[in-house]
Amino acid sequence: MDNAPDTGRNMPKITFRLADGKEQVVEAQENQSVMEAAVQNNVPGIVAECTGACACATCHVYVDKEWADKTGTSSDMEEDMLDFAVDVQETSRLSCQIKVTDELDGLVVTVPKSQY
User: Fold this and answer.
1) pTM of the model
2) Which band of pLDDT confidence, cut at 50, 70 and 90, is reported for residue 8?
3) Residues 28, 96: contact at Cβ < 8 Å?
4) Residue 105 has pLDDT above 80, yes or no
5) Which of 28, 45, 63, 91 could form a disulfide with 37 if both were Cys (CB 3.0 to 4.6 A apart)?
6) Which one, of 27, 24, 6, 7, lies nearest residue 15 by Cα?
7) DSSP 99
């Protein structure tokens, strides 16, 4: 029997679509970044060389269009870093800049093929 306390709260889930067509669903803690959740769960293609300092583009993802409004907009600094990413699209974001909230439960992002 598991003696862990039941908080009654489910952790938000994020689906990462991978280059091989597979999906990896991970649980994320509220207030951590999508990048941190990816790294903790060994999501392929999320390298995170700068460990979330918004100083590289190795955590680049495409946010599914239906989630774009909920993930917010890029800051000027994030936009500058996206200039270094390959195959930037309208919904490109750095996953280190997307904070997990309960509202993002079910978020779907795609890892660009160029990051493998």
Assistant:
1) 0.90
2) low
3) no
4) yes
5) 28
6) 24
7) B
User: Residue 24 burial by CB count (10 A; 0-12/13-18/19+): exposed, middle or buried?
Assistant: middle
Average pLDDT rounded to a whole number, residues 36-61: 96
At residue 1, does pLDDT exceed 80?
Answer: no
Domains of the chain by start residue, with CATH:
13-115 (3.10.20.30)
Q: What is the mean pLDDT of residues 32-51?
A: 97
The H or E element spanning position 23 is: strand 23-27
